[in-house]
Amino acid sequence: MERENFGSRFAVIMAMAGSAIGLGNIWRFPYMVGEHGGAAFIIVYVFACFLLALPIFFAEMVIGRRSRQGTFGAMEILAPGTRWKWLGLLTVFSPIIILSYYSVVGGWSVEYLFKALAFDFTGAESGEVRDFFGRFISSTWEPVVVHTVFIGMVAGIILAGVKKGIEKFTKITMPLLFFLVVAIMVYALTLPGAGAGVEYLVKPDFSKLDAGAVAAAMGQAFFSMSLGVGTILTYASYVRKDENMLVSGIGTAVSDLLFAVLAGFAVMPAVFAAGIAPGAGPGLVFETLPFIFNKMGAGIPWLSAIVAILFFLTILVAALTSAISMMEVGVAYLTEEKGMKRRSATLAVTLFAWVVGILCSLSFGSLSGIQILGNSFFDFLDKLCSNWLLPLGGLLFTLFVGWKMPSAAVRDEFTNGGRLRANVRLYPVILFLIRYLAPVGIVIVFLTNLVV
Ligand code: TRP
User: Fold this and answer.
1) Mutate which of 91, 98, 99 to test ligand 1's pocket (most atoms within 8 Å of Cβ)?
2) What is the pLDDT of residue 39?
């Protein structure tokens, strides 16, 4: 079977940035920054991105491009008959689990986009917006319907294939996303009272920078760059042999970081301008922003409606380009390893994630009584993935590339057979990061998660 490839370097970076940039950047990053000391956290985060996340990124790229297989097949080809197949299996399942609860939140953004389009938020008071959120997520049918709409869109893009689906969609939407977030940021920065939000983001408070904050910065970096579950690995298997890994890696890391910072500057000034506590957490965007947009457009209702529409469209598109990268991992596995057609593979992954997603959605309402280790089903899956499966997968990927693969093969992939001079020069540094620094860093995340 002929294997699809991304068409150009631009397409590779857009697809990978599309996977990286998502809900993690828009609500999680600003809130983490606020909780862990503002600018001080950002400094640690930048180090975590380049010293810990980027090496995992390169490790996944080396494995994917070398084997030209999805995550399970890659282990079969590079380490046949070994226990590494369990890493392959783990990283087939974990992205599908993430997809199921991610799609629920994706569904929320569909709901909010519809509401914004219907001008439903126009004139709503802060309390009303909050009440609406609480009632909406705990209801039975509506969230399930929009979750279905969201995952249906994801399946539609995946069905169209790597080139006609993933590549085409991300090439168009990623530049649009940057434009949208910059536009909203400029609007937010001009609000009266926005200064407090800016100060919150740039004034370092080193006193809040404890071990937990450092661990949080590392976890955020992994989640945000889609690492540890084989999504980057799978995308890398569609990257042509003459592409430059250093460029796509740094390109993705920089755009992910830039987008997080831009989103921070778009969300926080608005939150402060409306006098809302920045620590509202996961609900921040959905519970507070519709009201904030209202306030901002005071006197000109259509203006606030337009900003709201643009904002929720941004979230929806960002979530879609991330969700397709999760679904592709499972689809690659079923088509390559089980000989399924792309159609049936997509259907199978979609159905599985849809059903698990429904349980997640209901865990905010009718199933909220069911607790796993003190968490609702949704929170349990989220914690299981971000605190455990992601760092575990990332650790194993770096160990695999650093210690299991022959170094000649690793060097060959990273430097395109020695042809890329800058890559040749940087290779010893990258190898050091992959072999020593990243694994040790991840073990620290593990230990801190255990203790804190
Ligand atoms: N990085 C995406 C975000 O910031 C989410 C995501 C996509 C992801 N693929 C992933 C997270 C794989 C973990 C693992 O929203």
Assistant:
1) 98
2) 84
